[in-house]
Hints:
Layout: E1 3-6, E2 17-19, E3 44-50, H1 59-69, E4 70-81, H2 86-90, E5 121-129, H3 134-140, H4 144-149, E6 159-166
Parallel strand pairs: 1-2, 1-3, 3-4
Antiparallel strand pairs: 4-6, 5-6
Amino acid sequence: xxxxxxxxxxxxxxxxxxxxxxxxxxxxxxxxxxxxxxxxxxxxxxxxxxxxxxxxxxxxxxxxxxxxxxxxxxxxxxxxxxxxxxxxxxxxxxxxxxxxxxxxxxxxxxxxxxxxxxxxxxxxxxxxxxxxxxxxxxxxxxxxxxxxxxxxxxxxxxxxxxxxxxxxxxxxxx
Length: 174
């Protein structure tokens, strides 16, 4: 099983291909704004992208690259800051925050309008990640529209953890 740890930063994973431009320790040094990434098509079974996508100017292009370098059925885990997270604004390099449905643009059953790219992913799971009280954020994850539109004004939000699966076949190319 081949694992990619994209934007590894200080989270170096033994047994994975750790890619980062700035980290002290990385297997591959690459500016993630520059595509294509230095990997062949259909290379990875697992792709981790933790606290990375929000730093990049063109997330659609990045998602297309993840689709290209991931194998059919590959799991992609993405953690991004919620659009109401204080952490979103504390880091000057953050480009944007994310909502529950933001990555629906890349899934066949997504409910968000806009056909900006192929829909070559399936949403496997998503959940709000907690500051405190994990039980509360599990509950909030059951009512995401209410949470994003109202409750997040009153309850501190940290990030959203998405698990997607790459789907390849006719009409699903990058």
